Amino acid sequence: MTQSSPPTSSWRPGDAEALRIALSIPVTAAALTALQREMTSLEIHYPVGVCTAQGHLEAIAALNQELAALTPAELNAPIRSRRKGVAGGLVPNPLPLSKLDVVEYATELLLEETETEWSGEGPSAGVVLSRQRNVHVGQLVLLLPRLANWRVTDPDPFQGRLVRG
Q1: Which residues contact 110 (CB under 8 A, 6 or more apart)?
Q2: Pairing of strands 113-118, 78-84
Q3: What whole-number distance in Å separates Cα of residue 84 and Cα of residue 116?
Q4: Which residue has the higher pLDDT, 152 or 61?
C-alpha cells in the first residue's frame, strides 16, 4: 500500500502582488521582504497552504471584478433621500458683516441636513460582495498571521500610523 504525498505547489509570479493588494500591505522594502519571507515559510512548512492561499486569491480577484462592475445604484440602493438646506445650494449675498447683522440674519439658511432611508430587505450587492471578500482576506491572514502586523487598515485617510521598518 503506497501513501500518496500531498500535492506540492509553489507560488505563481503574480501571487506576491495579489497578496500585497488583498492584505493592504504598503509598498516598502521592509514590508515586501516580510511578505516574501512569509510566503517562503508557508511553502516550506505547509505546502498545501499555498494551494489554499491561491484559491483565496482567485476568489478575491473574482469578487474585485464583480465589485468593479457594479453601478453606483447597486452599491448603495437607498429607498428615499431627502436634503434640507439652502435653496439651490447658494448662500444669498451679501453675508452679514457686523455682529448686529448676524442676529438679524436668518442663520437657518446656512443649515444643511441630509436624510437617507435604506432598504430594509437586506444589504446591497456591494455590501454582500465586500463581506465575502473580507472572509477570504481573513482566511489569508490565518494562513500568514505575521503579515497582519503589516496591514494598513485605517479607513480615515487623514489619520496616519507609523509604518514598521
Answers
A1: 86, 91
A2: antiparallel
A3: 11
A4: 61
Nearest to 126 by CA among 71, 78, 61, 59: 71
Q: pTM for the whole thing?
A: 0.62
Q: Which residues contact 84 (CB under 8 A, 6 or more apart)?
A: 111, 112, 113, 114, 115
In 45-74, which positions are buried (b, 16+ CB within 10 angstroms) versus exposed (e)? Answer: eeeebbebbbebbebbbebeeebeeeeeee
48-92 pLDDT, tens digit per residue, is 999 999 999 999 999 999 888 887 767 666 566 666 655 555 555
DSSP, collapsed to helix, strand or coil, labels residue 115 as: strand
Residue with C-alpha cell 452599491? 75
CA quadruple 78, 80, 86, 88: dihedral, nearest 10: 90
Indicate whether 161 pLDDT > 80: no
